[in-house]
Specification:
This protein has 176 residues and is an all-beta fold. 0% of the residues lie in helices and 35% in strands. It is built from no helices and 10 strands. The chain is globular. The relative contact order is 0.28.
Length: 176
């Protein structure tokens, strides 16, 4: 099982779509609420008991925050996701790669994205598809909630070479 972030379908005929949805997460300014991105299904079901509480965490929709010319059309748009079941025993996301190692099948490749490094709402890094889609019915305005920024490499304890300072981090999702 894996999530294909930024896309509305699974990548191959040997992969089953479990569900599609929208990326949600804690607000970028909140130090509480969930610290990871979630793929929220398009067909939610709600508690029927009338449960209510006033002390809670919040989940917001996610938007792309992309100013790179090749991704400018995504900026401020909401982000879809799909949960896939691969016909494989193991699925792994490998950062800083665009292809899988020998013996592994590529599910998709893309770019590592997460919150901006200065924001309070830390999020897990996710691998967003290299040809990302936008959520159907996405608005053109900034809704601000959970935000997705490209992640860049910084040299120091991370040695350059083989890494390159200030490069946007790639990723690939592989199965075996």
């Amino acid at each position: 099982m894996y999530t294909r972030w930024g896309w509305t379908s699974c990548p191959s005929e040997v992969t089953e779509t479990v569900y599609t949805g929208a990326i949600g997460g804690g607000h970028y300014t909140h130090s509480g609420s969930p610290s990871n991105y979630m793929c929220l299904p398009n067909d939610p079901q709600w508690d029927q008991t009338g449960l209510s509480d006033s002390t809670v965490g919040y989940i917001y929709g996610a938007e792309y925050e992309t100013t790179s010319s090749s991704f400018q059309h995504l900026n401020e748009k909401e982000v879809p996701c799909t949960v896939c079941k691969a016909n494989a025993g193991t699925v792994i996301m490998i950062p800083a790669r665009t292809t899988c190692y020998s013996g592994w099948r590529m599910e998709y490749s893309g770019f590592v994205m997460s919150e901006h490094y200065t924001y309070a709402g830390n999020k897990d890094a996710i691998c967003v598809d290299a040809s990302p889609e936008v959520l159907s019915g996405s608005s053109n305005g900034s809704e601000d909630g959970a935000l997705l920024y490209f992640v860049k490499l910084r040299c120091g304890a991370l040695k350059c070479p083989p890494y390159v300072d200030d490069k946007i981090l790639t990723c690939v999702v592989c199965s075996k």
